[in-house]
Amino acid sequence: MEHKGGLPVEVLPVENGREVAYYVYAVARTRGHWEPGAPPDQAILPQAPIYTLAYQDLVALVSPVPVAEFGPPALEAHLEDAGWTRDRVVAHQTVLAALLTDYTLIPFKFCTLYRSEERVQAMLARHYEALECSLQRLAGATEWGVKLYYDRKTLTGWLASSAEVLQPLRETITRAPQGAGYFLRKKLAQAAQEAAEGMVAGWVQESHQRLADSAREAVVNPLQPPQVHGRADEMVLNGAYLVDDEAEETFRAVLAELADGSAARGLQYELTGPWPPYNFADLDLQEIPDE
After folding, report:
1. 139, 145, 179, 192: which is deepest, by most CB within 10 A?
2. What is the per-residue pLDDT for 270?
C-alpha cells in the first residue's frame, strides 16, 4: 500500500548497495505535443535523479530515496527536525514548480513513497481513468493565489477623514464647541471602527467574487495568522483561483482594478504563483492504495 511516513518491512529494491523506495512528486501529462525538457536538477535529496515512469500517456515523476532515511523510524525522527523538514519541503515544492512549464500535473503530498517502480506504474494503470479525468479538468489552466491584508489603523483613519457615510458627523464636529468636540471625535473614531468591519467584509466578498468570475474554479482557504504570513497587518482573504492560461491577462487586470487606490484605505492585495494545482486536484492521492 501507499505509505506516508514510512514503508512496511519487506524486501525492497537495492541501488548502489542501499535499499530504496520511490518518492513520487506528481502524476502528469505533457502540455501540448512537444517533448518536455529535462527534469529539474534539484530533487528531494541532493544528487537523487528525477525521472518518469509511464503508463500510456501518463507519467509519474519519481526519485529513488534510501529507506535508511525515509523509512520508519528514520523518517519520523527526521520530521521532528525543523531544518530537515523545511529543506525537504522546499525541495519538493521546487521540483513541482519546475515541472509546471512542461506538464499538466496532479501534485502528490509531501513524502509519498512507493515500494517499487512496478507499483508506481500499477497505480497509474489501476487509476488511469480517474487520473486522466482530473488532468483533463486541469489542462490549460494554472493555479494562482490572492491574499488580501488590511491595516486596521489605516482603514479607520481613512473612514474617519474621508468616508461619505461619516460626513455628517465630521460636519457636526466642525461646528461643535471645543468641549463637545472631544466627545464627538471619540464618537467618530468608534463609528469608523464599526464601519471598518462591515466594509472589510464587503471588500472581501466583492474581491473573491470578481476574481472567481475570471477563473475556471475558485476556493477560499483558511486565513493564516501573522506568525505564518509574516506581516503586521491582518489577512482577510486567502483565495486560490484556477485560471485559464488564455485568461491570465484578464485575471491580472481584475486584480489590478481591485487594488487601485486600495493602499490608501489600508488594503494590500498579494498575488502568488503560479502554483501546482494543490487546491484543484480532485483526487486525494494519499489515499490511493499501493496494494
Report:
1. 192
2. 96
3-state secondary structure 146-158: EEEEECHHHHHHH
Dihedral angle over CA of 215, 218, 224, 228, nearest 10: -60
Asked if the structure places residue 287 within a domain, the reply is no
C-alpha 204/C-alpha 20 separation (Å) is: 48
Which is more confident, 184 or 139? 139
Question: Which residue range forms the structural domain that includes residue 112?
Answer: 3-139
* 288 in any annotated domain: no
Asked if the structure places residue 87 within a domain, the reply is yes
pLDDT in tens, 228-274: 888 888 999 999 999 999 999 999 999 999 999 788 788 899 999 99
- Whether residue 129 is contained in a domain is answered as yes
112, 28: one domain:
yes
Same domain, 84 and 198: no
